[in-house]
């Protein structure tokens, strides 16, 4: 395929989806990520698109929201790995809320095996994934159906969440930055997500690496309310995504990174470890870290503090 044809196809994909990862572009145009990156730079120089953290987006500071058919085919391997890891955070008999999104839909498929679980959701896709789970109770919000992502939104959805209290909220979105937190491109979706957050003691964000550093119009969860981020391993060349992860950790977000080796298109993610937890530097609102994802760094700091107290006590004697 000639460069001009390749770049036209890249441009059409970005226009159709709003944001596309380099991996996906390389897979579709059947070339390397290095070549795709060069094409994206050329298109950016012409003002036709913007480069953004391992991918390409429509021109301008904020990406628009893609529809469900487009989202469902993006970063599928990464979403699967994230859902596998996030499912470990859910325990038997818990009550949780799960927001709308293709990543949360993947999570819901794994939650069908958790006995005694109660799931409150505004997503038809999440409810469908759990419809035949005999030991899981599904509670749907009210509201108006938003067809582009099969979610219930509006005042009916928000009012049905008033007075609700659950242990965890699992949310996705269109973008995540350390400065603004989680955001989405739709005002109605953002409003319902904020109501879901208010109902939960802990907030768990599910976001693949292509969303790191991406900012969209409506803030849903400020960074200081995010208890944990579950994401995938950014490609080795994506320094900006790694920097964003560190910035989120510096602000107190506990981070679990799932391996996504075998992702379609592009280089495989290095299989260093299936999970990496970045410690919380201080206490967070309502945080009760799950044993499966407890940070070794936090435990190390606690042990060191105990040792310092013991030495001080010996000195006083």
Question: How is this structure best described in words?
Answer:
There is one protein chain. With about 325 residues, this protein is an alpha/beta fold. The chain is built from eleven helices and 16 strands. Helix 1 (about 5-15) crosses helix 3 (about 35-45) and helix 5 packs across helix 6. The protein is elongated. It starts with a helix and ends with a helix. Residues about 65-75 and about 260-305 have low confidence and may be disordered.
Residue-averaged pLDDT = 78
The value of Rg in angstroms is: 21 Å
Give the distance, in angstroms, between the N- and C-terminal Cα atoms: 79 Å
Note the overall shape: elongated
- The portion of residues assigned to helices is 25-40%
Please provide the count of β strands.
16
For the largest beta-sheet, the strand count, sense and barrel status come to:
8 strands, mixed
Strand content: 15-25%
**Main sheet: which strands, in order across?**
6-5-4-9-12-14-15-16
Tally of contiguous helical segments: 11
- Order of H and E elements: HEHHEEHHEHEHEEEHEEEHEEEHEEH
Class computed from helices, strands and strand pairing: alpha/beta
Low-pLDDT runs of 5+ residues are: 67-73, 260-304
């Amino acid at each position: 395929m000639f460069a001009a044809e390749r770049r036209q196809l890249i441009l059409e994909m970005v226009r159709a989806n709003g944001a596309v990862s380099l991996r996906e572009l390389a897979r579709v145009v059947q070339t390397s990520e290095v070549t795709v990156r060069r094409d994206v730079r050329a298109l950016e120089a012409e003002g036709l698109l913007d480069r953004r953290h391992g991918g390409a987006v429509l021109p301008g500071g904020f990406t628009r929201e893609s529809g469900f058919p487009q989202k469902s085919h993006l970063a599928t391997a990464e979403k699967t790995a994230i859902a596998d890891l996030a499912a470990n955070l859910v325990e038997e008999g818990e009550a949780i809320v799960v927001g709308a999104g293709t990543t949360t839909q993947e999570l819901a498929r794994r939650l069908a095996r958790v006995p005694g679980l109660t799931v409150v959701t505004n997503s038809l896709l999440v409810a469908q994934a759990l419809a035949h789970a005999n030991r899981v109770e599904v509670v749907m919000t009210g509201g108006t159906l938003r067809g582009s992502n099969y979610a219930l939104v509006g005042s009916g959805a928000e009012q049905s969440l008033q007075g609700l209290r659950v242990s965890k909220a699992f949310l996705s979105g269109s973008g995540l930055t350390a400065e603004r937190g989680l955001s989405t491109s739709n005002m109605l979706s953002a409003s319902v997500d904020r109501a879901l957050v208010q109902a939960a003691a802990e907030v768990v964000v599910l976001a693949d690496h292509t969303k790191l550093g991406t900012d969209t119009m409506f803030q849903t969860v400020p960074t200081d309310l995010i208890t944990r981020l579950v994401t995938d391993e950014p490609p080795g060349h994506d320094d900006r995504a790694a920097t964003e992860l560190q910035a989120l950790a510096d602000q107190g977000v506990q981070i679990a990174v799932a391996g996504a080796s075998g992702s379609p298109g592009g280089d495989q993610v290095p299989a260093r470890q299936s999970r990496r937890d970045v410690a919380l530097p201080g206490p967070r609102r309502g945080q009760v870290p799950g044993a499966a994802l407890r940070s070794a760094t936090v435990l190390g700091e606690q042990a060191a503090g105990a040792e310092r107290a013991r030495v001080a006590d010996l000195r006083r004697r």
